[in-house]
Amino acid sequence: MSERQRGFALLIVLLTMGFLALLGTQLVAAARSDTLLADNLKQEAVLEAATDGAVANVIFAMQAARDPRFQADGVRRALRIGSTAVLVQIENETDRINLNTASAELLRALMIEVGAAPAEAERLAVAILDWRAAGTNPRQSGAKASQYRAAGLSYAPPGTPFQSVDELADVLGMRPALFDRLAPHLTVLTETDPDMTTRDRVVSRALANLAGVADDTLRPALDTGDAVLRIVATAEGQGGARFSIVVVASADFQTPFPRVNILLRQRLITLRPSVTLGGHS
Fold first, then answer.
1. Is the pLDDT of residue 159 over 90?
2. Less Cβ around it within 10 Å: N or C end of the chain?
């Protein structure tokens, strides 16, 4: 074999060894990535189970055991489900204004309370009623299909009740910033409007302004045993991992066949350690 041939053979050997080394590195990295991903998925499952357990604990404590330690007051409380720490925040869903039953006047008062100009609040309140009401003719200053088309939108009011609070963002004229301020005070999961016992201070001021009474005369009710509860549960795991859910539920433990009605179950943002192939996240 000539020197040139030996050199060429050596080059092939070196290239082959380099390729195999690179392939081995990639396989190790992929295996490590798969292991980290599996660990994250396992931890997420544990945290999700803990949040569900915390919600069940709260519902039973409030609506079956009438435990005075739990109140729908918005205060964050620490629980431990197994070995997992969970923070729960409990509110009464009936403290919120129902998009499907509220009058234009109440909707207008709420929007003004969160910072909308009176003219904007008036226009949007009527547009909300047009969104949920059947028919093709808009109210005065309202909005039906023709107004949505004129605004360049490809959809129109369905003429049916709101299915979720998020649907409000599609109402003609609703600004994202205003929607973000309104959403925490709205619901579609109750049957009536809130009254003066609401714990939501924004809603109470809107009601007070509408009724012409002083806000400091309002007194929140303490007994929420039969309420529709909104529970936010956040489980905390290792390495800063966190899993949160929001559940809206009612329960009836006074009948021979107790039952819990889950009206809404929604994941919030899940945070977990990032998967990296080198170094630390």
1. yes
2. N
